[in-house]
Amino acid sequence: MLVTLEGIDGAGKSTVHEALRDHDALADAVFTREPTESWYGEAVRRSLGDDGADPLAELFLYTADHADHLADVVRPALNEGRVVVSDRYVDSRYAYQGAALEETDIARPMEYVRGIHEAFTRPPDATLYLDVDPRSGAERAGASDKFETAGHLAAVQANYERLIEAEPERFVRIDATRPPEDVVEAAEDAIDRILADRED
């Protein structure tokens, strides 16, 4: 089973991802993230600091990182029957790169990004969506790169909402405006329900 954590910057995904490592139900799970620690992921991180980077070129950097992540981490772990928990995954690509491509000549950018990925990606079985408003997300994230401004995060959040509307059964919305311990508890409860449903 593949469980992903999604949400705009500042929603608390990394905090929840780290806390879930200590959750008994996930004792044998594989914890991973995108961008990865590979050289593909390093290229992605370098592009984040380049305000002049072409958004289409960035999309393909992210896509390469995702393909490598699938080949080296996600698929092997799933083939072993293990649960995989990923801090960001393909929905981040749809939401973020879809928003970044809005100012280009590409029509329906999020659909374009999805079309590229759907030929090879492995869809998540469940996604915990940490929900926070764009202004709070930008303040929490510290606006350390070009994707963390409130205006950009609002466009990203709108894309996430479209994804949730299309697959409501996959997403579990968690109110991330609450104190971190409450958000972690909600995530743990969601994981327990997801795993229980899987056993049924």
CATH class, named Alpha Beta
> What is the arithmetic mean of pLDDT?
92
Instruction: Name the overall outline.
Output: globular
Major sheet characteristics:
5 strands, parallel
Task: Please tell me about this protein's structure.
By secondary structure, the protein is α/β, with parallel strands linked by helices. The protein has a single domain (2-34, 66-199), classed as P-loop containing nucleotide triphosphate hydrolases (Rossmann fold). The chain is 55% helix and 12% strand. A five-stranded parallel β-sheet has the order 2-3-1-4-5, with helices on both faces. The longest helix is centred in the middle third of the chain and has 25 residues, at 55-79.
Chart the SSEs and their pairings.
Elements: E1 2-6, H1 13-20, E2 30-33, H2 39-48, H3 55-79, E3 84-87, H4 90-100, H5 109-118, E4 126-131, H6 134-141, H7 150-166, E5 171-175, H8 180-199
Parallel strand pairs: 1-3, 1-4, 2-3, 4-5
Helix pairs in contact: 1-8, 2-3, 3-4, 4-5, 4-7, 6-7
Characteristic key phrases:
single chain, 5 strands, globular, 200 residues, five-stranded parallel beta sheet, Rossmann fold
Describe the structure concisely for a colleague:
Helix content is 55%, strand content 12%. It has 200 residues and is α/β, with parallel strands linked by helices. The mean pLDDT is 92.
